[in-house]
Design a protein that fits this description.
This protein is α+β, with helices and mostly antiparallel strands. 29% of the residues lie in helices and 28% in strands. The chain has one domain: 2-Layer Sandwich (60s Ribosomal Protein L30, Chain: A). The chain contains 5 helices and 6 strands. A 4-stranded mixed β-sheet has the order 1-6-4-5. A two-stranded antiparallel ribbon has the order 2-3. α1 packs parallel to α3.
């Protein structure tokens, strides 16, 4: 078996625009402040996408979905992640597992973690048991701890299906 590990990270600050929705892992947080971004600013989807691209040696999401392209304005990042999964699959890779850590002082993530886990597993085409989501606060330190931003880290394992 040929396997590769990829790591991803993303951070977005909170928006002052009341019309922005908060979306994490394709799950909408009703009533929560949204994040600033050219797309829907889903830090979970962006982080998973970058981890996949890194493991497959295919660059980063900025290369594939540049913020200078008007077609990517307000893009649904779940769609972006699905397209990255398709690209990685065409290159002969499949996702074995994914581990995510979401860093947010607010909103509280516990009520949403399972929905995020199931949705990201579906987008990655893996069993829910091969997907993990952890939530951490910023302990009142830095932009996350001060409630200015949400960040996410991800690690994925890919297996080569076409040798």
């Amino acid at each position: 078996m040929t396997a590769r590990v990829g790591q991803g990270f993303d951070i977005h600050r909170f928006s002052d625009d009341p019309a922005r929705r908060l979306v994490l892992g394709g799950v909408v947080f009703e009533g929560a402040r949204g994040l600033v971004g050219h797309s829907d600013a889903d830090v979970v989807a962006h982080t998973a996408a970058d981890a996949l691209l890194g493991a497959a040696g295919l660059g980063d999401i900025g290369q594939h979905f540049p913020d200078t392209d008007p077609r990517n304005k307000d893009l649904d990042s779940a769609r972006l992640l699905s397209q990255i999964v398709d690209l990685v699959s065409r290159e002969g890779w499949r996702v074995i597992n994914c581990d995510l850590t979401i860093h947010a002082q607010a909103p509280k993530l516990v009520p949403y973690k399972e929905r995020i886990r199931l949705n990201v597993a579906r987008l990655l085409l893996i069993d829910a048991g091969d997907m993990n989501v952890k939530a951490k606060t910023g302990e009142l330190v830095g932009p996350v701890g001060r409630g200015e931003a949400i960040a996410c880290d991800a690690v994925v394992l890919l297996e080569k299906t076409i040798l």
